Amino acid sequence: MPARATVCLSFDFDAVALWLTTFRATSPSAISRGEFGARVGLPRVLDLLGARGVPATFFVPGATAELYPSAVRAIAAAGHEVAAHGDRHERHARLDYEAEREVMRRGAQVIEQVIGAAPLGFRSPSWELGLNSIAILEELGFRYDSSMMADDFRPYRPRAGDRISDDSQLVLGRESRLWELPVAWELDDFPYFCFHPYPYYVGTRTPDEVYGLWAGEFDFMYRAVPGGVLTLTLHPQLVGRGPRLAMLDRLVRHMQGHDGVRFSRLIDVAAELDQDAGA
Ligand SMILES: [Zn+2]
């Protein structure tokens, strides 16, 4: 029997790659914020998941797998999914076809070298896909993407080959073989918890405020979208602080208190959808 509701906890284990590439940081103090994710945030997150018996998905840039291989092996050893997140946390929309393909191939290759299994899922760094990304993911044998927002709780087939005409109209491509496991900024800890002076991010919401928003999203899905999939996006370097982790633990227990709720890795959702579709 399909679950009444599925919850996927996903963690973008960016560590220092976010600061080095996306924010172009050169200051050791900025970079150390990413290091906190590897030293402190990740072990705490793994403890929480273990204590609650919750499987999860971790998106890891190649650079992070290279720098912190034992941390990435610990994720896999605990039964969680390790999925791809670029090589150096690049901005995919700015890459041409060949460069993007190479970045995706390299990022996946490092993960395979570190844990002995190729990643089957992908999330674009900063949720910035390029127009070629879905076609490249298909070509490289990925099964799903988790970077888009055309739905909230229902996975769908993302299109490959969309383009934008010279007069700024969207020209629709074909349906791809992948699944899109949709995300939302509202369901991401980054806008709520990442304070950064330059470029400026506010990120000073309290754990209680965020609990209210996320529990509200879950309660709505549970009531109104039977069989829905809720994907939360979290960052060990942000959610790894004590009060935020306590909030996450409270949220997991709130969800687990409902009948017919299961926690799943994203790849298991994609595999089940493929099976239902007769793929
Ligand atoms: Zn990221």
Topology of this structure?
Layout: E1 5-12, H1 17-22, H2 28-52, E2 57-60, H3 62-67, H4 69-77, E3 81-84, H5 97-115, E4 121-122, H6 133-139, E5 144-145, E6 159-160, E7 163-164, E8 170-171, E9 174-175, E10 179-180, H7 190-193, H8 207-224, E11 228-234, H9 236-239, H10 242-256, E12 261-263, H11 266-276
Parallel strand pairs: 1-2, 1-11, 1-12, 2-3, 4-5, 5-10
Antiparallel strand pairs: 6-9, 7-8
Helix pairs in contact: 2-10, 8-10
The protein binds zinc ion.
List keywords for this structure.
44% helix, 11 helices, three-stranded parallel β-sheet, binds zinc ion, single chain, TIM Barrel, 279 residues, globular, alpha/beta, five-stranded parallel β-sheet
Compact summary:
The protein has helices spanning 17-22, 28-52, 62-67, 69-77, 97-115, 133-139, 190-193, 207-224, 236-239, 242-256, 266-276; strands spanning 5-12, 57-60, 81-84, 121-122, 144-145, 159-160, 163-164, 170-171, 174-175, 179-180, 228-234, 261-263. The chain is of the alpha/beta class and 279 residues long.
Verbal overview:
This protein is 44% helix and 14% strand. By secondary structure, the chain is α/β, with parallel strands linked by helices. The chain has a single domain (5-276), classed as TIM Barrel (Alpha-Beta Barrel). The strands form 4 sheets. Strands 1, 2, 3, 11 and 12 form a 5-stranded parallel sheet that branches. A 3-stranded parallel sheet has the order 4-5-10, with helices on one face. Helix 2 (28-52) packs parallel to helix 10 (242-256). The longest helix is centred in the N-terminal third of the chain and has 25 residues, at 28-52. The site of zinc ion has 6 residues, from loops.
